[in-house]
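Input for the complex:
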Amino acid sequence: GENVEQHPSTLSVQEGDSAVIKCTYSDSASNYFPWYKQELGKGPQLIIDIRSNVGEKKDQRIAVTLNKTAKHFSLHITETQPEDSAVYFCAVMFSGGYNKLIFGAGTRLAVHP
Amino acid sequence: DTEVTQTPKHLVMGMTNKKSLKCEQHMGHRAMYWYKQKAKKPPELMFVYSYEKLSINESVPSRFSPECPNSSLLNLHLHALQPEDSALYLCASSLYGSQNEQYFGPGTRLTVT
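Predicted:
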């Protein structure tokens, strides 16, 4: 079945530094890749997504890159701020014809002032 | 507006109780989802409704019974749960389904005693 691996599991950075989280997937037919941010006690919040017809997408301080040949995609956060501290999940839409998102295990990002 | 609402926020129930979780969205989305999230784990898909019809049941035990009364509402009926069912239950919705963004509600924190 579909498998999504996410690294690292924890990431600690200083405020102002960049943070990068990487995910790999197994189903080469998958073509929708969202990223979610989950703060303590809240539901996951969609922060950015990318479809397979593009290689990169930016939204202010966050960006996502996709390499379909290598089957991996990455989240890049620049100029990190303490409020970026949260758990980040990558996800892959299963290509089997249903609306099934497969999530990575998550990355706990801590941004220290 | 990308709001999905869930009630109650917290629920404590005994193993012999019957309770229901409720989810609502007014974005005109026609796909709705139930996920289960254990502590420090990613969300796991339970059920998918498309156009008010159940399209995916991820082999969920029958003590969980979903219902979609109309395109804006989604319920999850609970009966004879086990302590291991304690988790955060998340509802999500998307415009139609595959390739569309899924938006999550804040979740219901369920404790089974």
